[in-house]
Amino acid sequence: MTNQRERFARFQHLHALDEAFVIPNPWDAGSARLLTSLGFEALATSSAGYAFAKGKRDSSATLSREELLANAAEIVAATHLPVSADLEAGFGSAPETCAETIRLACEAGLVGGSIEDASGDPARPLYDFSLAVERIQAAAEATRGLPFLLTARAENYLCGRPDLDDTIRRLQAFSTAGADVLYAPGLPDLESIRIVCDAVDKPVNVVMGLAGPTFSVAELSAAGVRRISVGGSFARAAFGALLRAAQEVRTQGTFDYAREAIPGATLAALLAAEEQKG
């Protein structure tokens, strides 16, 4: 676990800086190596990106803990960078299930992971406040003594509950329960992001690349954000390029898309360089 602890120390350091860092989201070993070659300092898995690659929906009903952790382990093995994981809602409503998920994630070589408070139940899309806090507390207790940074997610804005006060209440309670990083995806504007950052005492992660407004790294850093992820948007960008290329061939019978494709030799060199580092 020495190498894992060294990665964990680097990951901790990134969150302690006075400016934001970008943590992009690969979905397999190849995309992890490509992103590593570009000089990013940490990576985070994407359940959405993995689901797209497997022809599935991004849902706990279609993605198992075992397959997502296996995917995460492949990404960990493909890079020398710290890797955090999208652990959905912990793969079960019970606090002890969340704790077990954290232990298994650490065993897979991950140095961080997120647990969200979305229940998956359309009738009650968010876990009740008390249970949501209990789940984060159990996950935090499971990290004790382990090289693992816990991120707690308040999913209000992705679950049709755009309540900033409740989002902040949840994040503050998650911090008290032991979360190391706080995350509220889908905040509508820079002012909301700034209010959240000012209201909590832990580093805040913000995701860019979703529908809606986007802000620069400099703008987010000035607002108090300390970590910026891209979720499944890199994977969607890759699928978008595939779709445009396929549509060109199917509808026009031309192959102009190849002019924008990365040369095979260039891609091979990037991937081989990272493989040698690993």
UniProtKB/TrEMBL annotation:
GO terms for molecular function: lyase activity; metal ion binding. InterPro entries: ICL/PEPM, Pyrv/PenolPyrv_kinase-like_dom, Pyrv_kinase-like_dom_sf. Gene3D superfamilies: 6.10.250.2750, Phosphoenolpyruvate-binding domains. CDD domains: ICL_PEPM. Keywords: Lyase, Metal-binding. Signal peptide: none annotated. It comes from the Bacteria. The keyword Lyase applies. SUPFAM superfamilies: Phosphoenolpyruvate/pyruvate domain. The keyword Protein biosynthesis does not apply. This is 2-methylisocitrate lyase-like PEP mutase family enzyme. It comes from Pseudomonas oryzihabitans. The lineage of its organism: Bacteria, Pseudomonadati, Pseudomonadota, Gammaproteobacteria, Pseudomonadales.
